[in-house]
Amino acid sequence: TGSQLREIFDKINNLLSGKSVQSGGRTVSVTQHPQGLDFVHYKLAEKFVNQGEEEVASHHEAAFPIAVVASGIWEIHPRVGELILAHLHKKCPYSVPFYPAFKDGTSLEDYQRMLGYQVKDSKIEQQDNFLKRMSGMIRLYAAIIQLRWPYGNRQGTHPHGLNHGWRWLAQMLNMEPLADVTATLLFDFLEVCGNALMKQYQVQFWKMMLLMREEYFPRIEAITSSGQMGSLMRFKQFLEKCLQQKEIPLPKGSLQPSFWRS
């Protein structure tokens, strides 16, 4: 509920502001250790990204409550935002977007880790699990850039707003596509923040959607094998429907004004 989210936000904000907070039956404060605040900045940012990777990956609608808290904390405590980006870029290079190239002398395991795969005991995780985690993180990022904490003073602009989403989309379309990954993440990203981008960029946005369908989609198709068609077809249907209706629907689970009264 909205009231629960406010409680969570206030507790995190109080902790970062140096106030004493109850946690695990103890009273804690970042002033108790000279590096206390640095440690909390780092771990909090890491936890936000982990929630994208775990919670949002399993429940897409969870992106919105997590993102609105992350965005609000980022606005008041910019250091947390910088570290959210750092953790996100490390775990999911596609959020930059960046496709790491294989360099001589790099072991295959290390390279798989650079691509975002989890490697345990020389075993690389299954492709569907990998894509699910990457989707969760991209969805969280797409939610953060469009949401603001509704109780802030809102004097300035969003600390990492929709212009970053526009840039991400443009850069993705300037890169050679990767089978499976590109179609999946473009779909995730547009499903979450396509509506917000459409309202902000209007004609320019629809030009980009046309470019995706006419020029970029065939390039993804050309490198996609028959076993990887699922993500491609889902992306294609989404593009066609949006272009046909000249509308991108609000994402499922987006926070309506009534949510904050709950």
Automatic annotation (TrEMBL):
It comes from the Eukaryota. One of its GO terms (biological process) is protein transport. Gene3D superfamilies: GLE1-like (1.25.40.510). Keywords: Coiled coil, Cytoplasm, mRNA transport, Nuclear pore complex, Nucleus, Protein transport, Translocation, Transport. One of its GO terms (molecular function) is inositol hexakisphosphate binding. GO terms for cellular component: cytoplasm; nuclear pore cytoplasmic filaments. It is found in: Cytoplasm; Nucleus, Nuclear pore complex. Its main location: cytoplasm. Belongs to the GLE1 family. Required for the export of mRNAs containing poly(A) tails from the nucleus into the cytoplasm. May be involved in the terminal step of the mRNA transport through the nuclear pore complex (NPC). This is mRNA export factor GLE1. It comes from Crypturellus soui. The gene is Gle1.
